[in-house]
Amino acid sequence: MESARKGAVRRHVAIHLRPFRAQIALAAGAVVLSTLATLAGPALVGYAVDRIDSDGDRGALVTASLAFLGVALVRPLLERVQILLSARAGERFLASLRAAAFDRLQALSLGFFEGERAGVLVSRLTADVQTLTTFVRQVFIEVASSILLLVVTVSVLFVLSWPLAALTVAVVAPIMLVSSTRFHRLSRPAYLAIRDRVAETLASLQEGLGGVRVIQSFGRERWVFGRFRERSRSQVTAWRHASLVNIAFFPTIVAAQVAATAVVLVAGGILLGRGSISIGVVVAFVLYLTNLFDPLARLSEWFGELQSGRAALAKIVGLIDTEAGIAERADAVEAPEAGELRADGVSFAYEQGTAVVRDVSLAVAPGERLALVGPTGAGKSTLAKLLVRLYDPDGGTVSLGGVDVRDLTLASLRRRVVLVPQEGHLFSGTIADNIRLARPEASDEDVAGALARIGALARFLAFPDDLATEVHSRGVRLSAGERQLVSLARVELVDPAVVVLDEATSAMDPGTERAVERAITAVTAGRTVITIAHRLSTARRADRIAVLQDARLVELGSHDELVAADGFYAALWRSWQAYGVAA
Amino acid sequence: MEDTPPRSGRRAAWDFLGRCVRSQGRFVVWAVTAGVVWQAAAVAAPLFVRKAIDEGIVGGDRGALYLWAGVLLALGSVEVVSWAFRHYLAIRNGTRVEADSREDVFGHALALDSRYHDSVDPGDLMSRAAIDAGLVRRAVDAMGHMSGFLVTIFAASALMLTIDVRLALIVLVPLPFLSVAMWLYSARYREPSREVQEAWADASTVVEESVAGVRVIKGLGAGEPISARFRRKSDYIVDRALAVANVDALFFPVLELLPMLGLVAVLWFGGNRVLEGTLTIGELVALYAYVMLLVWPLRTLGRRIETLQRALAGAERITEVLDARPTVTELVAQSHKVSFRGHVRFDRVSFAYGDGAPVLDGFELELEPGESVALVGPTGSGKTTVAALLARFYDVDEGGVLLDGKDVRSLPIAAVRRAVGLVFEDTFLFTDTVHANIAFARPDAAEEDIERAARAAGAHDFVLELPDGYETLLGERGYSLSGGQRQRIAIARALLADPAVLVLDDATSAVDATKEAEIQEALKTAMTGRTTIVIAHRPNTIALAGRVALLDEGRIVAAGTHAELLGRSQRYREVLALDEAEAAA
Fold first, then answer.
1. How far apart are CA B95 and CA B101, in angstroms?
2. Which end of chain A has less neighbouring CB within 10 Å, N or C?
3. Which of B77, B91, B288 sits opposite A239 (nearest CB)?
4. What is the mean pLDDT of residues A138-165?
5. Which residue has the higher pLDDT, B477 or B27?
6. Nearest residue of B to residue A221 by CA position?
7. Nearest to A126 by CA among B194, B205, B91, B209
8. How far apart are CA A568 and CA A378, in angstroms?
9. Residues 83 to 142 of B: which have CB under 8 A from any A CB?
């Protein structure tokens, strides 16, 4: 499980890094060169000191100094190359990863959204991605070059004096090995816990902002704030826990460094006394030890960011790897232009055992208008979602023009079959942008044309900046009816063959209601229409009515037939007449 | 956010950061102290390495060698302990400041009125409370660290001066130029770092909206275009982030070059001194080590300028929210409980959203305690505005809204909202149990009270049929109720608060016609003795109220019973025309 997850992270990183491998290779080359340049310093000083000490050789000093000057001038250039290349590769890698995460979010089935709090999903694509950015842009290079420096330094130490080097490694390696294994084990859960707390805080924040009107209207600001504060503080606690894990680790680095320096000084003194090494070697050795431990100590500054970044990456990859639910088959074909929309023995349950739709068979001919009728919870909306493939049935098939919808490409299916939900949700942007939601390439004329065809153009031209009015700007509020009109204009622009309409239940004033009715008539003209009818007056105008009761299709026929049959629908109709139109 | 006061955003951001730092009081002092001790120990170490080499190894004094090695060990322990304190305090202070900032933003957002919330995207507020607060954390987090590094720079410089003044000066002369470079860099960094933050906020809004509007997007097959929109925002982030990186690529190499030249100078001039015999090898090594000590602090200091600039950009965006002032404010802070009989009067009320055309214009309406009125009118006639004004979500532009004869602006906001129960058409339920959702206004309510409210709203029966009854989880992650069921829970929630005035704003619009009949009876009972405004279009909902007021173009144009109005008001018949048509059909 653990290793599978690690594998997934590595695989995704590899996929998204691949396009930038040239830049990464060059940046890595620059890092290697500048690391070697860093190491040149002590070597040149050691060389010069040895010569000065032994024979007072000025020539060696000149050589060493000139060489060092060259290094000093080249290193900043290497640094510049590395910054430019790694920034480009890093930022584009991040963009590629977040685009993949967003695409996956779009591909996930509705069921996923119903099972996860919106704030948690938002957190994956915002807070987690930001944390990863710090990791990739700042931490990764530092950590990588530190590790490189470490490896090269150890090799140099062995070249300088293998007995001293062996002694150093003997002192340092056990301390570092034990503590870093322990650290790794403890820190991973600690930082994953932080990511979870961050997501929960964001979820709580989103809910609080979404429900601000309700909260204010009941005067519950303080209570809601208290709950949010609890979440918010648990993030502080999670961080504290992580900091304690770091604290347990870092001292071992310094301990190893100090122990190694002390041992080298003492042993170096003894070896020098015996004349088996020169003073220059001891000097270079001590300087290299600084080289060895500085990067380790610096790593400590990045501990938090490093582990946060890894945890964030794991969370994002977790999202990308979530099963899409509604997926396109590899051999999917284009949806037919039109044709019969058909359900054959379709069953569906959100939770095992409680079927919401049970063995429903139904065929809707091209151009037919069908109404779905039934009491709340009978399965009307779920059946509609199955017909447009927002869910796949547990049993039975849904087909369009004789082809199982699961064999069709999703893009072509969504162009042919469109579901209009009850609420006309608005996105930030202008009215026109909202209408071309599904077809962003549509021109302003196309948008105006669609509005004109549904008879709503004049109403929207009356807004302060007509169709260019921002929907979230001050003093602009679209009524429920106007949001519905936007929703219908979107459909008109997509121009599908089948429209599944979840009738708006909210009572509007008859003026607007008539405008919406007119728009619905225009949008549905010449198309196959399936309406989830909440008003029987709507159902009555349909060619046929499918009556659902307790997840089953119980009656199917025209209004007159069903009334004549005197069954469940007839009873609903009588009750509707009694209450719905009482004048 | 056009209402931001005129004080400069950058200034406000500095003030905010200052407040953040001060809020942690002595813990900041401790963090700084720990940072200073930590680096002081690190700076002192080469001093003793030099002693150990010069006296112990070169001098051949074994005793001195052991002594200085021991001192190095002690120094290492000090370094470890102070590092641990610094690290702990950095995270403590940073995360607390982050939590405070995010709580400030949220708390303030809860206090801001509807005029504000009408004009901002929740996604934008979220990015300020989450991402921008995180940037402030990083800056506070870095404080102890940075003060330690400043100490290193000064101490290393001072120590170099004690070893060899001339040599030290040669090495240190470029440092002032470095601060000039940092200052220049800091200014160049400001714009792109603010733009990066804004780009992030934009992208967050797309994410937030795509999750909130997922049904629309899926139903319409708009996934592709939304993804494309996100990609555009994401590409803009890349673009701005690379603009920042370009500044980095100029600045960091310079930061790198100066200490490197210092090292070369140490080798050349120091080496010559050693040849002349005026400098020991140990001193040369120590000088070299001190210049090395400067490299990392300078480099990190450069990075931290970036951190600081980003924190300032974040703080600026946070203060924009915190500086927004609610237009609905309390005239006097009154804490005493006020109870109301439920007399309501709208006295020549005029109101407009923003600078738009007036929605209400000379609106008059009076309800005696316990009386019920149905408010009927076409879209845009201002019905919902009436409800919002009564609960003081907005303040009137002219006239007054009076509760028991007192202008609501003179009453405590909390008392007014307690007295006025609003149920909107679009119901918002929290991710919590049915029980907790109904008990939202009174979490300590007794079980019987909750059931009674549920019954009165016609919700009790279907709640019992839910998987876990009243303990069923609702909201985003919970059981999805139908629109009508949600509305009934919302009505129960309002009834449990037992308000003196109840406003049902299209509150049963999504309830099945068959179910509505059942609710009618229960609602009638709940309305008894309670002042009620029913905003409705369906005749049977209108029938809940004793009389009807017809609202058109911002004022009441006709009033009377439903039957009277049908008889004498042409406009009333027009407004209800569709239902008439249905009756005739």
1. 10
2. N
3. B91
4. 80
5. B27
6. B110
7. B205
8. 13
9. 83-84, 87-88, 91-92, 94-96, 98-99, 102-103, 106-107, 109-111, 113-115, 117-123, 125-127, 129-131, 134, 138, 141
Sign of CA dihedral A144, A147, A151, A156: positive
Q: Strands (DSSP E) along A365-416, which ranges?
A: 369-373, 395-400, 403-404
User: Given a cut of 90, is residue A221 above it in pLDDT?
Assistant: no
DSSP bridge partners of B375: B535, B549
Q: What is the mean pLDDT of residues B513-519?
A: 69
Chain B residues in contact with A250 by the CB 8 A cut-off are 80, 83-84, 87
Which A residues in the span 39-58 are in contact with B, Cβ-Cβ below 8 Å? 41, 44-45, 48-49, 52-53, 56, 58
Q: Is residue B358 within 8 Å of residue B385, measured between CB atoms?
A: no
Mutate to test the interface with A, among B24, B54, B214 (most CBs of A within 10 A): B214
Torsion of CA B449, B453, B456, B457, to 10 degrees: -160
Task: In whole angstroms, give the CA distance from residue B12 to residue B7.
Answer: 7
Query: Residue B386's closest CA among B560, B550, B565?
Result: B550
Tell me whether B71 touches chain A (CB under 8 Å): no
Q: What is the DSSP letter of A373?
A: E
DSSP 8-class letter at B200:
H
The span from the CA of B239 to the CA of B246, in Å, is 11
Q: How far is B256 from chain A (nearest CA, A)?
A: 6
Touching check for A473 and chain B: CB below 8 Å? yes
Type of residue numbered A107: A
Sequence-separated (6 or more) residues with CB below 8 Å from residue A495: none
Cβ-based contacts under 8 A for chains A and B: 515
Binary contact (A377, B482; C-beta < 8 A): yes
Q: Indicate the pairing of strand A498-502 with strand A528-532.
A: parallel
pLDDT at A56 over 50: yes
pLDDT of B101 higher than 90? yes
Q: Name every chain A residue with its beta carbon within 8 A of the beta carbon of B291.
A: none
3 state SS of B556: strand
Are β-strands A417-420 and A498-502 bridged in parallel, bridged antiparallel, or unpaired? parallel
Q: Where are the beta strands (DSSP E) in A365-445?
A: 369-373, 395-400, 403-404, 417-420
For residue A31, give every residue at least 6 positions away whose Cβ sits within 8 Å of its Cβ, in sequence order, or none: A82, A141, A144, A145, A148
Contact B118 A472 (CB under 8 A): yes
User: Residue B420: its chain A contacts at CB < 8 A?
Assistant: 217
Instruction: Name, in order, each residue with C-beta under 8 angstroms of B229's C-beta and a sequence gap of 6 or more.
Output: A440, B206
Q: Are A36 and A152 in contact (CB under 8 A)?
A: yes
Q: Which of A281, A388, A386 is nearest to A54 (CA)?
A: A281
> pLDDT for A332-344, tens place per residue?
888 888 788 889 9
Tell me the residue type at B178: L
The three-state secondary structure class of B326 is coil
Is residue A375 within 8 Å of A297, Cβ to Cβ?
no
At residue A207 the predicted structure's pLDDT band, cuts being 50, 70 and 90, is confident
Furthest-apart CA pair in chain B: how many Å? 119
Structure tokens at B39: 């680096």
- Ranked by mean pLDDT, the top range of A172-176, A422-426, B33-37 is B33-37
Q: Is A106 on the interface with B (CB under 8 A)?
A: yes
Say whether pLDDT at B582 is over 80.
no
Q: Identify from B121, B218, B537 which residue to disrupt to test chain A contact, counting A C-beta atoms within 10 A and taking the largest count.
A: B218
How many angstroms from the chain centroid is the CA of residue B296? Answer: 35
Confidence at B171, pLDDT banded by 50, 70, 90: confident
State which of A167-176, A521-530, B97-106, B452-461 shows the largest mean pLDDT: B97-106
